[in-house]
Design a protein that fits this description.
mainly alpha, Rhopdopsin 7-helix transmembrane proteins, 19 helices, 0% strand
């Protein structure tokens, strides 16, 4: 059991480290939820290993459930729900989900204090605590597990690996409860053959094995996502910026016009595919579109039209946590089709596409305020446009326009209509 907990803790730490090191420039809420799940697993398994090695003969090992087990199922549901609703859940509702874990934490540390002050002896009410945590886990894992499975079935645009992860973790939770229930029933039916201590030991082994499997599954999804993002950036984003001519062309960037039209306005292929207005970029797009594609130009154009409509009319780019998966779910197309359309039809990565809308939003707003003789709060406008940090905003603004935001204010005497015409 100690080896399982140690291996699980190590695996959780490795995957968590990978998530942090290779995090996207603008991390999304889904990734943060997975990071919290991994952190909980790491703390849980590390604590169990340390306790078992430091106090191998302590009476408390005969039965003491940790409150952390009540965090896992709500986190899974939040992760799945984020793909479905996409908008951030109010903090009060999120806090409500973790009330059982909070109450269990109070009881847990109260019992721990008693054990420390009484030389390793356990209080009489530890049995009641274990039963309450056990029943809460049973209800939580089954309830949130089923809800997460239902969400994964409804999300058409969610990538296959993400669906697999949600289904696997939900199945592990429900299956773990079933196995633990069978062990408890066996202990009740055959108390002479299976003692309560043995039953508790086997339940812990099952739990640690489940957590290890979850860490491996999350690690697999993380590695796939990192490989996909890197391939897309190399093929359609960062290599373009390596050419001085294209960097210079950024200064003449032609912004997509944000119109308030009730109906989507299809744009010609050459207009949408060549936002930079340069022959270098157009040549790159043309060459990219000639590559083997699973979608026709017409299908890609339809997807881009849907995306443009959502950006213009719903202003989805203002959501700082907007991700490729979330956008695919919202427009009801498979994730890889959306990625392919952006990369091959527009010649842009997802973040490049989104941030161009954000930069234009900032410029339009700055010009509007200046026309009314008001001094724009650049950072406030940037956050309103969807950026979540000052550094990323400054980086993308200069990369897109060729000058800094403050430089734009000083030198941007040209009317905004002329800039985006």
């Amino acid at each position: 059991m100690n080896y399982i907990s140690l291996l699980g803790a190590f695996q959780a730490l490795v995957v968590l480290g990978i998530s942090i090191v290779f995090a996207a420039k603008e991390p999304v809420r889904n990734d943060r939820i997975l990071s919290w799940l991994l952190a909980c697993i790491f703390v849980h398994l590390t604590g169990c290993f340390v306790m078992n090695k430091a106090f191998p003969d302590a009476e408390i090992h005969k039965g003491y459930s940790t409150f952390i087990v009540l965090l896992y199922a709500p986190l899974l549901w939040l992760y799945a729900r984020q793909f479905q609703e996409h908008r951030k859940m109010p903090a009060i509702k999120v806090a409500f989900l973790f009330i059982p874990a909070g109450l269990a934490a109070i009881a847990y540390f109260t019992i721990a204090g008693y054990v420390i002050t009484h030389g390793g002896k356990t209080p009489v009410y530890i049995g009641l605590y274990n039963k309450m945590v056990g029943w809460s886990c049973t209800v939580s894992y089954i309830f949130f597990g089923i809800k997460s499975l239902n969400i994964s079935q409804q999300l058409r645009g969610l990538s296959f690996s993400e669906k697999q992860l949600i289904r696997l973790i939900a199945t592990i939770f429900i299956g773990g409860i079933a196995i633990s229930t069978l062990i408890s029933l066996a202990n009740g039916a055959f108390p002479n053959e299976i003692s309560a201590t043995d039953a508790h030991l086997w339940i812990r082994i099952v739990s640690y094995t489940m957590l290890l499997a979850i860490c491996l599954a999350i690690g697999r999804v993380k590695i796939i996502a990192i490989c996909n993002i890197s391939a897309a950036d190399i093929s359609h984003g960062h290599l373009l910026l390596a050419e001085p001519a294209l960097v210079e062309a950024r200064k003449n960037f032609v912004y997509p016009v944000l119109i308030d039209s009730p109906e989507p306005q299809p744009a010609p292929i050459n207009h949408m595919a060549a936002p930079l207005g340069t022959t270098h970029e157009a040549g790159f797009i043309s060459e990219s579109k000639q590559k083997k594609s699973s979608l026709s130009d017409t299908m890609q154009a339809e997807i881009i039209e849907k995306v443009n409509y959502q950006m213009v009319n719903e202003k989805l780019y203002t959501d700082a946590d907007l991700s490729l998966d979330g956008l695919a779910v919202l427009i009801k197309v498979p994730r890889h089709h959306l990625s392919e359309s952006l990369n091959k039809y527009l010649g842009k990565s997802f973040y490049q596409y989104i941030n161009e809308y954000r930069i234009q939003h900032v410029i339009v707003e700055m010009e509007r305020l200046r026309e009314h003789h008001k001094v724009p709060n650049i950072l406030s406008i940037a956050f309103e446009a969807g950026f979540n940090s000052k550094s990323s905003f400054n980086q993308y603004f200069k990369k897109t326009t060729g000058i800094t935001p403050s430089g734009w204010l000083k030198n941007g005497s040209t009317p905004v209509d002329d800039v985006i015409a």
